[in-house]
Amino acid sequence: MKDVRLSALNLVPIREGQDDKDAIKDMVKLAQNLEALDYDRYWIAEHHNAPNLVSSATALLIQHTLEHTSKIRVGSGGIMLPNHAPLIVAEQFGTMETVFPNRVDLGLGRAPGTDMMTASALRRDQHNGVYEFPDEVEQLATYFGPSNQQSYVRAYPAVNKNVPLYILGSSTDSAHLAARKGLPYVFAGHFAPQQMKEAMSIYKELFEPSEVLQEPYMIVCLNAIVADTDEQAYYLASTQAQVMVSITRGKMQPVQPPTDDLKGLLTPREFEMAQQRLNQSLIGSEETVKQKLEAFIEVYGEIDELMAISYVYDQNAQLESYKKLKNIIDTHFTDNK
């Protein structure tokens, strides 16, 4: 089994009783704590018209996080490229790479990160952004590359900065693209596990070596909550279940405290869906989560990096979960010899 690196994704959610500024402060504090734990990278999502998330201006949040940390890589999980002109993205991330060298990642997604009405308000060309995604990824690679390979329009100061690009996806389409371009691939297993196995297989089997990568690099994002006992972990995970149901109901409410009566809060169908999602997550004690991760690798194949997202209401419990997850990876999935 190959060594597994560990990173984290943050959607910058607002907890019940908090406001926008509190959520951003929590984002920075978590980044600082994960840096102290030697997490490899910390990514921030892009979502729009979501009253319970403060991750609409992703580049600004990345810059803010970089300013308050010193070594952890910080990036986008991701920049939803149909919403942005590649030139502007290159200028922004080239500038951050100039100020914070070798610490900036650019994860790219082809979905709008919002509802269709909001997407129409965001998109530069209204409807073609998704189809132009492969070409725009290529444009970005050119903007960050050497000057002698560029045309008249250049994204200063991005030239020669070589900001690493990552293809994000929740379907097989993105797997084909990442493989064809020889780029790292990040699958959103935390919310779209349905095509995960097929997408991972496609990426690994069809991967074409590039100047960036000689071998495939597979990152999987999963929900993860680790506690002293399985019972405690599943109690904390009742918050995650409420988040998921809030999305399906279209309410987008702030992150709620955990509950002992999840069944009473949800309809039978919602409860069944919540249980299914919890079963697909890395939830439990350290020993249980170790076994779940081993089982995941057995079914889906080896991964290079686990990117964890953890919806836990209590910040101390959330940090403790990330500590325990790091211990699992260091002890059982990394060769420290």
From TrEMBL:
Name a GO CC annotation attached to this entry: cytosol
Q: Which InterPro entries match?
A: Bact_Lucif_Oxidored, CmoO-like, Luciferase-like_dom, Luciferase-like_sf
Molecular function via GO: oxidoreductase activity, acting on paired donors, with incorporation or reduction of molecular oxygen
Superkingdom, natural source: Bacteria
One Pfam family, please name it.
Answer: Bac_luciferase
Domain Luciferase-like, residue spans: 20-298
Write out the similarity annotation.
Answer: To bacterial alkanal monooxygenase alpha and beta chains.
Name of the protein this chain belongs to = LLM class flavin-dependent oxidoreductase
Which organism is this entry from? Staphylococcus gallinarum
